[in-house]
Amino acid sequence: MTGFGRRLAEAVSTRGPLCLGIDPHPELLRAWELSVDADGMRKFCDICVAAFDGFAVVKPQVAFFEAYGAAGYAVLEHTIAALREAKVLVLADAKRGDIGSTMAAYAQAWTGDSPLAADAVTASPYLGFGSLAPLFDTALAHGRGVFVLAATSNPEGRTVQRARVDGRSVAQAIVDAAAERNRAEPGAVGVVVGATLSDPPDVSALGGPVLVPGVGAQGGRPEALGGLGGATPGQLLPAVSREVLRAGPGVAALRAAAGAMRDAVAYLA
Hints:
One of its GO terms (molecular function) is orotidine-5'-phosphate decarboxylase activity. It is an enzyme of class 4 (lyase). It is a single chain. This protein is an alpha/beta fold. The chain has one domain (4-268): Aldolase class I (TIM Barrel, Alpha-Beta Barrel), CATH 3.20.20. Helix content is 41%, strand content 16%. The chain has eleven helices and ten strands. The chain has an eight-stranded parallel β-barrel with strand order 1-2-3-4-5-8-9-10, surrounded by six helices. Helix 3 runs parallel beside helix 5 and helix 3 (38-52) packs across helix 11. The radius of gyration is 17 Å and the shape is globular.
């Protein structure tokens, strides 16, 4: 399989720099007049897949599927397969992070040969960046990518992420460690940096993509993302969920909302 960095760059260049979220939150299921169960979630996801066909990246939020146990995971597997059939890159927003054999098992689940394996997965480095080594290695062996949490928008994250060690923030140390991994395989490791941050880490030397959640409903403005953290053209991947999803349940309306947001961030490509 072609490396993730190259596949992502090609998708962004032809389909635009936008990552669309699939977040089957109970409130959205009710707003779409769907049942709040695995069956309603499957219908929700099928609508999203139909509407997002032709976009670069789609990010299912794993937590909402986990809430329904085995039935929810079955819907997630179905959704990942359907997105792949539509030639859309899938980013599983699982935020996994552990150590040793447990991390290796997570790596197989999300970046190995499992039915859950996506084109890329989000991960938490806050048990130590080195603890993610099994995930990086498995992802690289299968041509997949990893997006590592670096600087998130939630206020609780500042205590850890903005703490300073040896003259730099923990968030910057994570970005720098990701850059080291990218020297072996450019673009294989990305980082997550919140759209609403006033003091993002420097990502100019990352050599990989930057997922930027929080655009739209969470307050991040599409027009204000240019150069975030010193990013270069084509590096930022704005992530939008509720701002688009609330346009549903009609496929045409949902697709139009996604298209409008893609147009709003097209200048970042």
